[in-house]
Amino acid sequence: xxxxxxxxxxxxxxxxxxxxxxxxxxxxxxxxxxxxxxxxxxxxxxxxxxxxxxxxxxxxxxxxxxxxxxxxxxxxxxxxxxxxxxxxxxxxxxxxxxxxxxxxxxxxxxxxxxxxxxxxxxxxxxxxxxxxxxxxxxxxxxxxxxxxxxxxxxxxxxxxxxxxxxxxxxxxxxxxxxxxxxxxxxxxxxxxxxxxxxxxxxxxxxxxxxxxxxxxxxxxxxxxxxxxxxxxxxxxxxxxxxxxxxxxxxxxxxxxxxxxxxxxxxxxxxxxxxxxxxxxxxxxxxxxxxxx
Length: 292
What we know:
- The protein is α+β, with helices and mostly antiparallel strands.
- It has 10 helices and 6 strands; from the N terminus they run βββααββαααααβααα.
- A 6-stranded mixed sheet has the order 1-2-6-3-5-4, with helices on one face.
- The radius of gyration is 21 Å and the shape is globular.
- Mean pLDDT is 82; it is low at 212-228 and 230-241.
C-alpha cells in the first residue's frame, strides 16, 4: 500500500510496503538539476552529487562506503536535467542506517579541498568519455538545438573549463539555495513501515534549511513553474508531444542546413525516428499497452 506524508516544512515522505520481500530500496529525490544552473556554473549539480559521498562532519568518505557495505547494502546517486537522486538498497533491518547516511550527506557534507580536486578530475574524465560516445553527443546536440541559450539545453556533466574551476564554496552555496525541504521527496519501497520511516526521515533531515523569500538563498519559482523558451511552430499552445516534435524538426532542419560536425541528413533523420519511437513507447506505457 502506498502512503504519503507531507511535513509542515514541505518535506515529503512516501512509501510502498511489500510484504513479500525482506529488503528496502529508498532514497531522496531532489527537484534540482541542470535546469537550475546559471550558465557560469553549468555542471555544479553533477559535481555536487559526486561530492556528497566524499565526507561529512561525522563520516569520512571511507566510513560512508564501509558502513553501507558492512551490511551488504548499496549506495549510489545520479544527476539529470530536472532532478538529482541519492538512493540505497539494504535489508529491512538496516533501514535506520541507510536513512541516517542519506540524511548526513545531504546536510553535513564538508566539500574537502583534496576530495574536490580528485572528484573534479573524475568528472573531467567523464566529460572526455562522453565526448567520445556518439549517443551522448547526439542527445547533447538535440538538447542544445531544442532549448538554445537556456539551462535545459546545456550538458548535465557541464563544460570542462567550468567544472575545473568550481570551488567548494560555490558548490555549498548552490546546495543551500536549492536543497530545501519543499523540493525533496524521501521515498522507500519494500519491507518498510511507513510510520517508522516518517520518524526516521524526519529526524535525519531536521537540519534542512527553509530559505526565506527575498533572501540570497531563495531562488524564486520552482523549476516546473518557470517557462521554457521553446522553439518551433505552435509555441506554448502546442501539446507536449507536439513540442517534442517541433524540437526534433528544429534538430533535423539544423543538421540539413548547417550540419552537426559533419552529420548527414540521413543521420539526423535516424535520430529523429529513434526519438519518435521512444515517445510512442512512453505513451503506450502510460496507457498500460506496452510492457518491456
